[in-house]
Design goal:
alpha/beta, Rossmann fold, seven-stranded mixed sheet, 12 helices, 7 strands, globular, binds S-adenosylmethionine
């Protein structure tokens, strides 16, 4: 864990590979942070669920730190330098793009399948300093094979994406247009519907099939010997938020693991150093 914390802190500090890619305002926050603040920002993304209080620089650096944790995972499983990475459900979130760019020195490539348009527009605005090829395709992760060739990716990264797929699967049949809604003001409703379906034992109707199909499609995209990596995180403070299904959101990776195992996909799990299997899952494609 100490090794990972140091590595994450180095990556997001001035001189680090991830630091170099950050927008100017985030770089300014990193320059203004003390070494102790940077170290606590790094630790914050390694502890799950995450501590309640985090200083402003830590907030600014959170996605950069998350990106560094993924970079460490890419290195640990030995992904090729010029890797091709697939990410379902990027939203406006850049950690996987940062990790792919740094791991490849700008020679890699990245594709996300993502539905929500306003979030995708925000993501595009964050990528000015990236050199590698990247593409945002607006469609369901479950329809990956209509856009992308099988066996052409080194890794599929489900970064905090299990909940995204489940939330969308239970919200669209209730009439929510998840492509066009302003995501954050509507997310509470999506999570409440997910909790409702979970409580009623209804995840098997739409949520589970959507997730299993998205993973099966990702499995087809990844070359034999490549990887499917998943993580999830949540804040400790949500434990006391009445509407938030904290237990469910702490069990998303174990639940996905159980469903994937039952789907009999050609994958085998392997451990990642310093990562709790409750919050991380690394599957090697057979
Ligand atoms: C809040 S963003 C999450 C970004 C990122 N996963 C993270 O947590 O940092 C959720 C995104 O997932 C997308 N999404 C949800 N279900 C999807 C699906 N089945 N296929 C493609 N995109 C999906 C949404 O449209 C939205 O853009």
């Amino acid at each position: 864990m100490l090794h990972l914390q140091d590595r994450v802190a180095r990556e997001v500090s001035p001189g680090g590979g991830i630091f170099a890619l950050l927008p100017d305002d985030v770089q300014a926050a990193a320059r203004g942070a003390t070494p102790e603040e940077i170290a606590s920002s790094a630790l914050n993304v390694l502890i799950r669920p995450q501590p309640e209080e985090i200083h402003p620089a830590g907030r600014m650096l959170m996605n950069a730190c998350l990106g560094a944790t993924w970079l460490c995972a890419f290195e640990e499983v030995g992904l090729p330098r010029n890797l091709r990475a697939f990410e379902p459900c990027a939203g406006s979130s850049e950690p996987i793009l940062l990790a792919t760019e740094v791991h490849s020195g700008g020679t890699g490539s990245y594709v996300t399948l993502n539905l929500n348009r306003p979030l995708a527009a925000q993501l595009r605005d964050k990528l000015a300093k990236l050199r590698m090829d990247w593409e945002i395709i607006e469609d369901y992760a479950q329809l990956a094979d209509t856009h992308l060739e099988p066996g052409t990716f080194d890794v599929a990264c489900f970064h905090h994406a299990v909940n995204d797929i489940l939330q969308t699967a239970v919200s669209e049949p209730r009439g929510m247009d998840t492509r066009n809604v302003d995501w954050w003001p509507n997310e509470r409703q999506m999570i409440e519907w997910l909790a409702e379906d979970h409580g009623a034992g209804r995840l098997g109707e739409r949520a589970r099939p959507a997730l299993v199909e998205a993973v099966a499609q990702a499995c087809e995209l990844v070359k034999p010997g490549g990887y499917l990596i998943f993580d999830h995180w949540t804040w400790v403070k949500y434990q006391s938020v009445a509407w938030f299904p904290f237990q469910l959101f702490s069990d998303l990776i174990p639940m996905a693991r159980e469903w994937i195992l039952a789907a009999d996909l050609p994958v085998a799990e392997q451990a990642l150093e310093g990562r709790d299997p409750r919050w991380w899952m690394c599957l090697r494609r057979g």
